[in-house]
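[SOLVED] Predicted holo structure with zinc ion

Edit: marking solved, answer below. Original request kept for reference. I posted the sequence and ligand SMILES and asked for the 3D complex as structure tokens.
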Amino acid sequence: MRLSNSAACLSLVAATFAVSAVSAQERVWANDQSIEQISEHVYRWGSDNQFGAYVLTDTAIIVVDGHYCGSGTMEWLKNELTQRHDVPVKYVVLSHDHQDHNCGTGIFADTATAVGHRNIVPHLTFEQRDSMVPEITFDEEMELTVGGVNVHLLYFGPTHSDNLIQVHIPQDRVLIAVDSAKGRNLFPDFRDMDINNQLDVMKILANLPDVDVVLPGHGPVTDQNAFVDHYNYLSAMKTSVLTHMAAGRSLQEIKELVTASQMEAFGDYNGMDRALTDNIVSMWDYLYRYRESNNRITGEEATRCVEDSTQCRTGL
Ligand SMILES: [Zn+2]
């Protein structure tokens, strides 16, 4: 009986592998490639719910970001830019190191120089991303002026990665806020996020002047309310997890309590079903490293400390 059960399990595993192999092969990329003009100089391009942008001036083009590896959208984009415009791509600005936002950018290396935050370079190198590596880097802010159009590159410290930048075109009142303008969409988790600074930066971006239109890396064109929506969710999540940690509750208890409270307040956010638990666990992990709980000193330890000050506990 056991044998036949094991055999059944094995064949189920084999069948699962076969199904996933087929679905991986069947993934159809980029059947929705598009370019949309957003303002006088700014265009949005992409496919598969993943978007970059480009800034067109009289003398050159600035491309912002790459695309999913294997989507073919970078090859398509290069062809489109050649057909539509008679100026070269001079710069490729990389919003951050995550692979889905820089793969395939090397296709522009014949005419363009890559630009990014100083911290992006080691990530691209260590992870061996299929990406241009910026020759031009900056620490806090940088201005690219091409054909009379000013493009402001802004870094507000570590947020979603330690190298994410904002691309602002003030004269067009457009902000390209890749993976920052999350709105009512959950991250899968907070794996490389500085959550405290992310909260501060959401307030800065929500109030950045000269912005009418906000372009996120995924999802529809939006506005600065997207930062407020993300702030509200993240802030409530942090406060809730921190409060329960300070009360000495276990991670298991925290998962149950925070799931209930977040579902009640933010049940209409996208991804709650698949990402909420991982959001709670990675928030707990961040706060575990952020805080120090109170020492619980036993009576015996207190007595030892009074009798011999070298025996006093100063930490855990
Ligand atoms: Zn990202």
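OP edit: The first helix runs from residue 2 to 26. Thanks to everyone who chimed in.
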